[in-house]
Amino acid sequence: MSDIQGCVVEADGAWVTTAAGARLVDLSNSKGSVLLGHRDPDVVERVCEVVRTGLSGWRLQELVEKVTGRVLERIPEHDQVAFFKTGTAAVRAAVHGFRRTSGKPLVASAGYHGWDPLWQSPPAPFTLNDSGVFDCFYVVDELAVFLDQHAGRTACAVLAPDFVNLSADTLKRLFALCRDHGLPVVADDVKYGLRMGPGTSMHTLGLSADATVLSKGLANGFPLACVAGSGEVLEEVGHCLSTLTFEAVSLAASDATLEKLDRVEAAAAIAREGGQFLARTTEIFNTSRLPVRVQGSGAIFQFVCGGPALEEAFYGACAREGLLLYEGDNQTPSWRFSDEAVQSAQERIESAMAGLTREFAHLAGHAIPTEAWWAAAWNQMDGFCDPDADPAARRAFLTAQLAIG
């Protein structure tokens, strides 16, 4: 798969082209960052317009205010926005803001928040790491125990919503626990924000966080992230500036992206076309009788296989058929994934599965082991997905994952 990605020379809509001239259907889209599709003409035009001005990051207040306004229209509970180049930096800045304004050292967490020493693994499940972060791994009962003991010393909770491996009830219970203990919530909506609807995905659950981080999809593949919030916390976050905080190209790309997402009702279209693909793919998997499944929604989904050998063969077969996938993780179609692209992706999945059905005939009728479901969830969200699991088995699984690093 990495060889195919390395030789891509052009991208347009839902397609990428290799140096050898092969056209691939892209379901990864830069890990979900390209929300409108590659080479979107409105984004390209806006970016080129700004490039031609010769300005890189000077005297761009009007552009900053436009993008700020577009973000706040989507999350009306907030009234301030601070910009960053990556979601990782934005989440870290939000934590810094709550720590500074509260004077409290600890942080509760659920989910993946980027590669940063702040989120290093703890020495054992449900213990503090060296940065004072408690990761509950989405286990509601463990968060409850931690907050009962340490809520008074905890600055905030950082929750990354997940709509592939978790139920809405789990997310709501985690949120409610934080509220019951008077804990501010940072919604790390880097992955799902703008993809599930016009603003934060928390709104689909009827929830409003104290601060919201957006990034993927914010500028259709250009490097931009933001923290939206209110009050002295956002004033503190706004001091976290860098040389490229107000870099013009990404802000221009975001201006065009946010305007177009609403105009074309992109989130609804992605859910509809992606849902069509999922329905047909489910039929193909069921017909094969192999332990391969797809879970999630049309907006974002994940393939799950019954073992490492089958998973490796599945991604290899899809790559040979010309499907560009995010191996072992979530697939994120763009707005341009429709019509010919959907049909072609279905045909390529069907062809890949035909070969696998012959190669892995001995697995026909087998179920996907419970541990494989857990591993798939861990790979996609750095957490545990089964609220009914035996606590000892859950701890053993998490201990093994933490040992891997």
**Overall strand count:** 14
Structural domains: how many: 2
Structural class: alpha/beta
Mean pLDDT: 95
List keywords for this structure.
globular, 405 residues, seven-stranded mixed β-sheet, Aspartate Aminotransferase, domain 2, single chain, alpha/beta, 14 helices, Aspartate Aminotransferase, domain 1, four-stranded mixed β-sheet
Task: Give an overview in words.
With about 400 residues, the chain is α/β, with parallel strands linked by helices. It has 2 domains: about 1-40 and about 265-395, Aspartate Aminotransferase, domain 1 (Alpha-Beta Complex); about 60-245, Aspartate Aminotransferase, domain 2, CATH 3.40.640.10. The protein is about 45% helix and about 15% strand. The chain has 14 helices and 14 strands. The chain has a 7-stranded mixed beta sheet, sandwiched between helices. The chain has a 4-stranded mixed beta sheet with strand order 1-2-3-13. A hairpin with a 2-residue loop joins strand 1 and strand 2 (about 15-20). Helix 6 (about 140-150) packs parallel to helix 7, helix 10 (about 265-290) packs parallel to helix 12 (about 340-360) and helix 11 packs across helix 12. The longest helix is centred in the C-terminal third of the chain and has 23 residues, at about 265-290. It is globular. It starts with a helix and ends with a helix.
